[in-house]
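User: Fold this; tokens only.

Assistant: Input:
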Amino acid sequence: MDQLEHLDKRRHIMKFSDVAPAKELIEELLWKAWKVTPSKNNFMPYQVNVLGPDKQAEKISVWNKSKKNKKRTNEEQIPGSEFNEFEEWDDKDGTNIYFDHLTSAPYLLVITQRVEMGNQMYQKNVREGDYYEQMHAEALPSIARGTSVEVGMFAANLTSFAIEAGIDASTILCFPADIKEWGDLPWVEHPVLLLMSLGNCEESRREFMARTNQVMHELDLKPEPESVINWV
């Protein structure tokens, strides 16, 4: 199997199976992704917080945050829409079935920024007068873009290793950016950059759409390569 065929097996998961992969396997996949993912100045200024099968309450909390973020986005971007008639958050509103993988996933990763003091070489550089944003909490917003690129590479590498091991992985960016909204999860100390779910697929998004709405399934395609790749 070549690399294209391997990576083309990636699919977004609608719902995960109740059968959880072994913790040891997930630990191995995470280590492999850590091993091969590069980072500017070797800082890796992000934290991969892993919620295992025993953290269902925390997963439901994350799911609720994604729901509320989606509802708020609709209210703000579609003035006068039906969403505006609700004055307060309600779990019955803003529900998106495509978020269900967050609660059905045996393993949910909440990837956040973090402060990193650097290896001995960079600590030596600091003593000699250098400055690195990764070492300062107040500077994290200024490097969020670069850190997000690194997190994307980590997620892509983890997905590839997961596919190789017969594990499915999905990512999602629909969640609140304001750290204050994560106060019920004390281990979230800095802004969240990505959510990623891991497990065994029960039904993929494409399978769900083909089963429930064939028309939408046929219309839901990515742009053609000519729209994305531009030779100048």
